[in-house]
């Protein structure tokens, strides 16, 4: 945008300095709105079908609270450290930003590791996607979230590489901010998976 | 530029948000397994806590109200949550007659 320079304001965070960046961030919020709708359809499917267990195990048979809590705490803490990364970025501390992004990545990788182990454990117990409507919708909902986290890990890794190459620019700052929105959003989705899938499944 | 951006030297907002998230998570855990409430009351309780925690993330970590388009962002997210509630509650309600 040609007029972008006129809006330049020293007091603004780097990621909002150009018109293009501001529109990118707004556009990403609208994308997150669409993601909410996507996950809503998967939650609706799961919640309608989760008592249709056929001859397979029920949610209460399968879920173990300890594993679920480990995954929840890993992702919750990673959302916090991702917030600290943006906080450090706004103080113009590249090292702090990189360190917190790296911690976020490791916590995210830990989350995925536990989730994959959980899925493998279920399959060994004979609970696969083909077993029942409950398990089909379970693996699709939780798996879609896990795929998002995996994508986020790859995305964040690429942004760390760009930060190492280019340092702070309005562009890299905007990219960090947008990936942070994505990461926090995945924690929001997990809160509802934790509540509506795991806790509800073990209570009912 | 309209909205204020915070330039604090210590991430208080994030730390408070994180502690509150932990409290809400463990409160949900307690309601589900130790409160001894009826199943319906448990479900209502944990869903309320989940919504609170989602709102907390949006405001404390994602700064949804920040920037020139803060209002549009907030309305966009509120509307998407409205759609989510309609889809989820509507599906459960409709299928309650079928299954």
From TrEMBL, chain A:
Subcellular location: Cell membrane
A biological-process GO annotation: aerobic electron transport chain
Keywords for the protein's UniProt record, in alphabetical order: Cell membrane, Membrane, Oxidoreductase, Transmembrane, Transmembrane helix
Domain of life: Bacteria
Keyword Membrane found: yes
Coiled-coil blocks: none
All copies of domain Heme-copper oxidase subunit III family profile, residue ranges: 1-202
CDD domains (UniProt xref): Ubiquinol_oxidase_III
Membrane topology: Multi-pass membrane protein
Annotated GO MF terms: cytochrome-c oxidase activity; oxidoreductase activity
Catalytic activity of the protein: 2 a quinol + O2 = 2 a quinone + 2 H2O
A Pfam family it matches: COX3
Record PROSITE patterns: COX3 (PS50253)
Assigned EC number: 1.10.3.-
Main location: membrane
Gene Ontology CC, one term: plasma membrane
Leading EC class: oxidoreductase
Membrane-spanning intervals of the chain: 26-48, 68-87, 94-114, 134-164, 176-199
Function (record text): Catalyzes quinol oxidation with the concomitant reduction of oxygen to water.
Family of this protein: Belongs to the cytochrome c oxidase subunit 3 family.
Annotated protein name in UniProt: Quinol oxidase subunit 3
Source organism of this protein record: Anoxybacteroides voinovskiense
TrEMBL record, chain B:
GO molecular function, one term: proton transmembrane transporter activity
GO CC annotations, alphabetized: cytochrome o ubiquinol oxidase complex; plasma membrane
Name of the protein described by the UniProt record: Quinol oxidase subunit 4
Amino-acid biosynthesis as UniProt keyword: no
Enzyme class per UniProt: oxidoreductase
NCBIfam families: QoxD (TIGR02901)
Transmembrane annotation, as ranges: 12-33, 42-65, 77-98
Main location: membrane
Membrane topology: Multi-pass membrane protein
Record family assignment: Belongs to the cytochrome c oxidase bacterial subunit 4 family.
Listed Pfam families: COX4_pro
Compartments it resides in: Cell membrane
Reaction catalysed by this enzyme: 2 a quinol + O2 = 2 a quinone + 2 H2O
InterPro entries found in the cross-reference section: Cyt_c_oxidase_su4_prok, Cytochrome_c_oxidase_bac_sub4, QoxD
PANTHER family: CYTOCHROME BO(3) UBIQUINOL OXIDASE SUBUNIT 4 (PTHR36835:SF1)
Entry EC no(s): 1.10.3.-
Key words, A-Z: Cell membrane, Membrane, Oxidoreductase, Transmembrane, Transmembrane helix
Chain's role: Catalyzes quinol oxidation with the concomitant reduction of oxygen to water.
One GO biological process term: aerobic electron transport chain
């Amino acid at each position: 945008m040609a007029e972008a320079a006129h809006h330049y304001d020293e007091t603004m965070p780097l990621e909002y300095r150009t018109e293009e960046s501001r529109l990118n961030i707004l556009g990403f919020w609208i994308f997150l709105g669409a993601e909410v709708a996507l996950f809503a359809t998967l939650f609706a499917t799961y919640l309608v079908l989760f008592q249709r267990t056929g001859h397979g195990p029920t949610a209460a048979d399968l879920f173990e609270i300890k594993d679920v809590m480990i995954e929840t705490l890993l992702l919750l803490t990673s959302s916090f450290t991702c917030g600290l990364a943006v906080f450090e970025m706004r103080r113009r501390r590249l090292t702090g930003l990189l360190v917190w992004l790296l911690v976020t990545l490791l916590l995210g990788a830990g989350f995925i590791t536990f989730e994959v182990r959980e899925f493998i454990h279920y399959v060994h117990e004979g609970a696969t996607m083909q077993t029942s409507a409950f398990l089909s919708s379970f693996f699709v909902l939780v798996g879609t979230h896990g795929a998002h986290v995996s994508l986020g890990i790859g995305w964040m890794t690429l942004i760390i590489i760009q930060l190492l190459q280019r340092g702070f620019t309005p562009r890299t700052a905007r990219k960090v901010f947008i990936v942070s929105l994505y990461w926090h959003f995945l924690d929001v989705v997990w809160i509802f998976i934790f509540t509506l899938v795991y806790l509800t499944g073990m209570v009912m | 530029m309209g909205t204020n951006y915070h330039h604090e030297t210590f991430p208080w907002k994030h730390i408070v948000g994180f502690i509150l998230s932990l409290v809400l998570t463990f409160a949900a855990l307690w309601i589900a397994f130790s409160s001894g409430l009826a199943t319906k009351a448990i479900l209502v309780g944990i869903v309320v806590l989940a919504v609170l925690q989602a709102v907390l993330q949006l405001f404390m970590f994602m700064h949804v109200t920040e920037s020139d388009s803060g209002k549009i962002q907030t309305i966009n997210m509120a509307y998407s949550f409205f759609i989510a509630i309609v889809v989820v509650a509507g599906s459960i309600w409709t299928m309650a007659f079928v299954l």
